[in-house]
Amino acid sequence: MEKGILLVVDDSEMARNFHTNILLAHGFRVITAEDGADALEKMYQHESIGMIITDINMPNMDGYTFIEKIREDDAFEELPIIIVSTEDEAKDKQHGFDVGANVYIVKPTEPEELVENIRLLLG
Ligand SMILES: [Mg+2]
């Protein structure tokens, strides 16, 4: 089955590679972006992005703003979005859900938790 492309957004190259390697090992196709602005551009360059996995704290455009902009577009109303962030307070998670994230995972990411949530969101 076509799984679509997962977009991994993180300003840390180490975090991007870590998450990308987990996903590649599970047979997903991945593209990456370095911040929210870069990610927003890539959303409109690649039509088959099926899910976003994004950091929050990033230069240029943070994850909250990126998600807000994605959800403003009717085409992306149902697109699954996972936040992966070091911010672990309830207010951060609430902010994430308020802007439209489906899942909030606190770093350091447990590979099983990430993959399990992706599978749940893909149905
Ligand atoms: Mg960051």
Helix/strand class: alpha/beta
- Count helical runs: 5
The whole-angstrom Rg is: 13 Å
How helical, in percent, are the residues? 40-55%
Order of helices and strands: EHEHEHEHEH
Number of domains: 1
What is the C-level CATH assignment? Answer: Alpha Beta
Query: Total strand count, please?
Result: 5
Low-confidence stretches: none
Within CATH, the superfamily carries the name: Response regulator
Spatial ordering of strands, largest sheet: 2-1-3-4-5
Which labels suit this protein?
123 residues; binds magnesium ion; alpha/beta; Rossmann fold; single chain; five-stranded parallel beta sheet
Description:
- The chain is α/β, with parallel strands linked by helices.
- The chain has a single domain (5-122), classed as Response regulator (Rossmann fold, 3-Layer(aba) Sandwich), CATH 3.40.50.2300.
- Helix content is 45%, strand content 20%.
- Strands 2-1-3-4-5 form a five-stranded parallel sheet, with helices on both faces.
- α2 packs parallel to α3 (63-72).
- The chain starts with a strand and ends with a helix.
- The model has no long low-confidence stretch (mean pLDDT 95).
- The site of magnesium ion (MG) has 6 residues, from loops.
Summarize this entry quickly.
This protein is an alpha/beta fold and 123 residues long. The protein contains five helices and five strands.
